[in-house]
Amino acid sequence: MGKRIIEYIKNIFYCLAGLIYSGDELCVICNGYSEESEALCTVCKGKLRRCCESFYIDRGDEKYLSMSVFYYSSIVKELIIKLKYKSDFICGEILAKYMLELVKESELKFDLISYVPMTKKALKSRGYNQSEFLANYLSRFLNIKVICNLIKTIDTKDQIGLSGEERWNNTNNCFNIEKSENIKNKDILLIDDVITTGATAFHCAHNLKEKGANNIYVLTIAKSNV
147-159: per-residue pLDDT in tens? Predict the structure, then answer.
């Protein structure tokens, strides 16, 4: 818990620094000159591949509307890695801004924001949940509450390197809901960083739906075809 608090304090300092030093910056990817307040230069921004269409993740007759801001290409991958494994919340803020733009452009309506959780062990090890960081950013600017009752009960294998069906089996029965009365008949936006087969997001959405949520929409930074 202490490490997690420290990471949030670091995030606050990053944001304050961004307000104080709001002039020209170096790009967080290539260290090239950037006039953009988001600290991503024109060249690197030009390499971002937007994912322009919504899609569904489904299993049997159950399906959930999903959106991703980008395809999982090199620049996006580096930004996500910096956020996820290097505590680089400036990169996280860049990604969260794009997510916020997509939500506003889509005119999607929802009552609550949720996020793909980590186990207590994994959270203690990393110190923060990158999906929770993104959810909290959206919450601040949309004035919509983040609900934290989706929990992960089992540490699963890393999804990288697993086949499609292995990914589905790996994430089955490892999520649960606490205080389900808080989501009854609510429309919920579920946040994650990357979607590949959609297995993780689907199982989270399924649990929310099973416990009484109305509609669940999935939003990720990137969509991978790996």
Answer: 999 998 877 656 5
Minimal CA–CA distance to 72: which of 51, 86, 98?
51
Q: Any residues with CB less than 8 A from the CB of 27 and at least 6 apart, and which?
A: 33, 34, 39, 40, 41, 43, 44
Q: Taken in order 9, 29, 81, 167, is the CA torsion positive or negative?
A: positive
Phi, psi of 142 (to 5 degrees): -100, -10
What's the CA gap between 175 and 190, in Å, rounded? 14
Among positive and negative, which fits the CA dihedral 25, 28, 33, 39? negative
Q: Tens of pLDDT along 29-50?
A: 998 887 756 688 989 999 999 9
The helix or strand, by DSSP H or E, that contains position 77, with its residue range, turns out to be: helix 74-86
Neighbours of 11 (CB within 10 A): 19
